[in-house]
Amino acid sequence: MKGVSQATVIEAKNLDLTFQTNDGAVQALSGVTLDIAAGDFVSFIGPSGCGKTTFLRCIAALEQPTGGTLTVNGMTPEEARKARAYGYVFQAAGLYPWRTIAGNIRLPLEIMGFSRAEQAERVKNVLELVDLAGFGGKFPWQLSGGMQQRASIARALSFDADILLMDEPFGALDEIVRDHLNEELLKLWARTGKTIGFVTHSIPEAVYLSTRIVVMSPRPGRITDVIESPLPKDRPLDIRDTPEFLEIAHRVREGLRAGHAYD
Ligand SMILES: Nc1ncnc2c1ncn2[C@@H]1O[C@H](COP(=O)(O)OP(=O)(O)OP(=O)(O)O)[C@@H](O)[C@H]1O
């Protein structure tokens, strides 16, 4: 339970990843060391190409680090993937257009072999969790972009993994919808106690959501600052106007500026 155990769920030590490309080696991550504790909400922020997505993909065993060690729930990322230790939300909702919303959410459950009754129960629960009760029978094109993204979050939550990895899930949405989904995500996090890793380009989003903000710089992707948020867990949107919020945002901006190449 959150608050009771602060066990480390994700542990990266001196992680390196160099891609070999036709144009030569691209060092995407260099010496990344980070512990993420159970129940943490950790955002990764940094300029394009600094390795945020690559780091998330390493956790999800979608990329293979070329150096260092990485464990997820004490397992290798590959073992954690097989143990369904995390749900993954991509930048685009990625819903199958020929399946209903419920059908999309059910898909991982079908693959995992849940009984039909269990599938139905879980779909109902996660639809409620993301505030889409009653929309299970609709097709993706009948929903707004924000609703589609909520459905994709529901799909990632359907098998109730303790860890949720989110790669810029709200990047393509307008600001009002994004604000609303940020609020909803915080409520969901408070209700479920999940550990969340969240990639974003937005300073206000990172500061509003996170218990810790990881600032990264490019060439090669390194962690340049880790900011522990002093903000209370209960965060109305207007907390963004408080001096405490603005102070953290300032520190993030300074960190980004220090690592920026401007080319
Ligand atoms: N499969 C790959 N092969 C070669 N290079 C790659 C591969 N995946 C990523 N890279 C490179 O690694 C670096 C880090 O990419 P990554 O997508 O992790 O950055 P990012 O911080 O998530 O960027 P963005 O904010 O634009 O999504 C970039 O220079 C990118 O071009």
From TrEMBL:
It holds the Pfam family ABC_tran. Residues 12-239 form the ABC transporter domain. It comes from the Bacteria. The keyword Nucleotide-binding applies. InterPro entries: AAA+_ATPase, ABC_transporter-like_ATP-bd, ABC_transporter-like_CS, ABC_transporter_ATP-bind, P-loop_NTPase. PANTHER family: ALIPHATIC SULFONATES IMPORT ATP-BINDING PROTEIN SSUB, TAURINE IMPORT ATP-BINDING PROTEIN-RELATED. Belongs to the ABC transporter superfamily. This is ATP-binding cassette domain-containing protein. It comes from Pseudooceanicola pacificus.
